[in-house]
Amino acid sequence: MSTLAALARLRAVRTGTAQRLATVRHCHLSERPMVFIPLRLAGEAAAPLAAMAGTDPGHPHLLVVPQPRDRDLRFAFAAELAQIVLPYVEGFLKETETVERRGAEPYERCADAPQLLVPNRAALAFTLLLGRSTRFRRAEGPHAVHPSVPVLGRWLTFFAQRARHPGSALLPAVTEALSLHWATGQSALEDANLASLVGWIDPPPGTTGAEAAREAEDPLVWPPAGPATDPGFDAEVLAPAIRAYEEAPGDRATARVAEAVRTQLDPTWRLMWRAVDLLRGLPEGRGASARWELDRGSFTAFAEQVAEGGPPQPKHDGAVPAASRLARMERAQASYDAQRAYDDPLLMAAYRLTGEAFTGTVVASDPANAEGEGRGRKLRPLVTVRTGDPVRLAAGAKLGTPERRGQQAEVVEVDGELVTLKIVKGMGRGKVATPGAVPESGDQVCYAALSDEYQPPASLPASEETPWTHGGPPPEYVPSPEDDQEEWS
Amino acid sequence: MERFDRLRGAVPARPHDARAIAALAANPGCGRRAVMDAAGIDKDATATHLGFPAPFGRSPFAITRGNAFEALVKDSGCAELLRLLRELLGLPIPLAAYTDLGDIGGNPSAHLRHAHTLKLIDRAARDDDEAGTLYDHPLLRLEIAGHTSYLEPDVVAFRLAGRFHIVEIKSFAIVDGQAEPDKVAAAARQAAVYVLALRNMLAELGHDPARVSHEVVLVCPENFANRPAGTLLDVRRELAVLRRQLSRMAKVGAIADTLPEDLTFDLAPDADGVPTRPVSELREAVGAVGARYAPECLSTCDLCFFCRDEAAAEGSTELLGRQVRDALGGVATVSEALGLADGTLTPGEGQEEIARLLRLADGIYGVYAEAG
Q: At A484, is the pLDDT very low, low, confident or very high (cuts 50, 70, 90)?
């Protein structure tokens, strides 16, 4: 945690309200997101108890499993969830745009993508498990399920795996999205409670954030946002309702369980949409839109796989896909960090405090400085900046700047408060610099040793050529009857 | 000993479970917890009477599921467990005897039961036959901060060819070889407590403590079914941490000696067990022993809400978690840190660096956040 973020938390303690950690929104927010709040039966790995889902704040769909230990009821739940999620997801496949590429064939990309919002990290993990327990099912054979169930499983798995990708916004956990933008006067551990976090950010009139957050800890006032339910609710309300269903299964008993879980889900449903409004109140950062483009690309590619009838995602990644996934995520993390800092002076501040970035005033500028002779002559303007920041950069360090994203500079010398740098990239081919391309004396500038450059993907062998050191080529996926039979109890 | 009896009042001491010990090792600097645990005080009742009931509860569904799973594993003389042990340890275990150490009739004292466990484990350590033996519900003992605690583990000790393995049965699922890291870590910490206690017991009996394996057998349901699967869990790291923390833990006796003679946490329950002690008096008594609150307490200690409230009243930076405290270079209170940040407070010795950073951060924050 940066000193700045720590200071923001201290200020939150003193003022009793959450403090801003960002000046722009760093995650894309869809115009029509789907909120998905799953509940799990306590003690079970992946037994869905209920879920609330939908795109209209006024009309949530409530799904319920009146006896969560009943396998058939679970698959009925999955099929019902598929009826809500799949049409929403597939609705985004209709409109596409053509993306031109230099040196490669143009391709089609969906103009927009679905966005599922879940309350917290635990809900993300549960979504992954729900995907795992449904994607290997088949619509035929002795253990047949509704054909939509395995498709839902693949999509949930896709969303949950993509959520691990730094900067992806296809399946954000709302507590994490809020914590990116606001600091509360409590610990990060307590921020995982959605009601308490929203209490800090947007307390009801006449209440401080601190008071609202305390109140939010009472499960009778604010039921947990799931997937775990309140043990007291389990004992006093849910257990008798499920027992009644066991004794006399039917619509009445189902309705009783449904009403019970509705009391637990309704408050979270309203909180989720309040959180959406809070996030919408921030203008979207430039990088967030760029990252959403990548999300759209990933969504389009996966939709093609599903359409072609590709196999479900494997239980374990093979050596090559694992290595390439790791490399992709590392690159995404670096560029996510850099983009956010360049988009937001408040996030850049964390790097200024550690000496990796600085702001200051240009005191000297030599836009005509050049290196090389004849045809090899290149413009290498020199700029000297006076800064009060504690710069910790060595000569030769590569710098970027939020003001001129295409340029790259290099540190020439740091002398006390004076930093001299040389612009080495993005000067064009002209003999003289275009006006405005080089900062002039008196300009306020910011430079940071953060790179958001395109990095080529790691070169890895094809999956079929996995070397023996890494287990050799992985076996091809063959649907096994075991997958069908796998109990879900 | 009398000292602790007086602190506790006229109720029997609560036995420790490994969970409490593992948690104690997680926050060894907390004197309040150390004293209360050493005296065997019911912290849950104390917290409730103080008006800060602990936020823990277990769902009846989780309890049912846990019990059902354990029953399944232990059914027919631990038949399932034996199957797992054969696979895991790669041993031809033809048969294993099953001994329930908890079953010695009547309602014996912990001391008696411990003596019984001691006797049988001693015999087991001398025996060198090829058949395995499963010992259920052993009553172990561990010296915690100068004070002996009995451990009632819900655990099985398995002996084969002179070696012992601790078997822990947990009902969280392992899906495709992965389980929730928090739960595995908690299980490993707990198992380490048992391994250490059993090793101490062997040493006490004059046997080689290394005969208790550092690999514990973790039995969990596999994937989404109820079928048990076993994994070997190496707890050497947890053991080292536990040993270090136990030895480092402030000697509870020393803390107790600094407390006022007449201090007691007695709830003075009436005939129906309802506490009659005035709350303000109890609050003062509990406040007399220094605590060290951290947000992690919220998942382990019954007194967490009380201590959090206290830390908030003191304006302690502990409230915000270790990460924040680290970023603040250990500045103890919110007002001190904010004073350093806005320059109204002159940094003390050793605070110059953090004060400079805070000043800078405060300046930047003022420019961007307040405008935005």
A: low
Closest chain B C-alpha to A6 CA, distance in angstroms = 5
Q: Give the predicted TM-score (pTM) of the model.
A: 0.91
- State both tokens at B18: 């490994």
Q: Are A186 and A196 in contact (CB under 8 A)?
A: yes
Which residues partner with B257 through β-bridges?
A: none
Q: Quick check: helix, strand or coil at residue A37?
A: strand
Q: Which of residues 353-392 of A touch B (CB under 8 A)?
A: 353, 389-390
- Structure-token pair, residue B307: 């201590």
Q: Read off the pLDDT of residues B285-306 as tens digits, 9 standing for 90 and up.
A: 999 888 999 998 898 888 999 9
Cis? peptide before A345, omega within 30° of 0: no
Q: How many CB atoms lie within 10 A of CB B352?
A: 12
* Exposed e or buried b per residue across A468-477, where buried means at least 16 C-beta atoms within 10 angstroms of its C-beta: eeeeebbeee
Partner A contacted by B221 (CB < 8 A): yes
Any alpha helices (H) in chain B, and if so which ranges? Answer: 2-8, 18-26, 31-38, 43-50, 60-89, 110-126, 181-204, 236-248, 252-258, 279-287, 304-314, 322-327, 334-342, 352-368
User: Per-residue pLDDT averaged across B172-188, rounded?
Assistant: 88
Q: Which of A121-130, B24-33, B219-228 has the highest mean pLDDT?
A: A121-130
ipTM score: 0.87
Q: What angle is formed at CA B59 by the lines to CA A186 and CA A240, rounded to 5 degrees?
A: 130
Q: Percent of chain B having pLDDT more than 90?
A: 22
Whether B198 has a pLDDT exceeding 70, the answer reads yes
Which tokens belong to A383? 């700029």
Taking only residues 124 to 153 of chain A, the set having a beta carbon closer than 8 angstroms to any beta carbon of chain B reads 125, 129, 132-133
**Rounded to an integer, what distance in angstroms lies between the CA atom of residue A182 and that of residue A278?**
10
The C-alpha angle A162, A168, A172, rounded to 5 degrees, equals 85
Is residue B155 a contact partner of residue B167, using CB atoms and an 8 Å limit?
Answer: yes
The Cα angle at residue B153 between residues B4 and B98, in degrees rounded to 5: 140
Task: Report the run of H or E that residue A320 belongs to, with start and end.
Answer: helix A319-343
> pLDDT tens digit string along A49-93?
999 999 999 999 999 999 998 889 999 999 999 999 999 999 999
Q: Do B59 and A486 touch (CB under 8 A)?
A: no
User: Contact B317/A4, CB-based, under 8 Å?
Assistant: no
Give the C-alpha separation, B58 to B52, whole Å: 18
Q: Do A316 and B176 touch (CB under 8 A)?
A: yes
Label residue B372 by pLDDT band (50, 70, 90).
very low
Residue A347: which residues within 8 A CB-CB, separation 6 or more? A21, A22, A26, A340, A341
Task: Using the CB atoms, write b or e for B120-144: b if 16+ within 10 Å.
Answer: bbbebbeeeeeebbbbbbbbbbbeb
Chain A hits for B176, CB-CB cut-off 8 Å, are 132, 315-316
Q: Is B216 helix (H, G, I), strand (E, B) or coil?
A: strand
Nearest CA-CA partner of B301 in B31, B62, B58, B27: B27
Cβ of A239 within 8 Å of Cβ of B175? The answer is no
Q: What is the pLDDT of residue A458?
A: 75
Is residue B67 within 8 Å of residue B59, measured between CB atoms? no
User: What is residue A483's predicted lDDT score, i.e. its pLDDT?
Assistant: 65
**Cβ atoms within 10 Å of A54's Cβ, excluding its own:** 17
- Beta carbons of B42 and B269 less than 8 angstroms apart: no
Cβ-in-10-Å burial (0-12, 13-18, 19+) of A117 comes to: buried
> Quick one: which of B191, B148, B153 has its CA closest to B13?
B148
A190 contacts B295? CB cut-off 8 A? yes
3-class secondary-structure state, position A283? coil
Q: Is B323 on the interface with A (CB under 8 A)?
A: yes
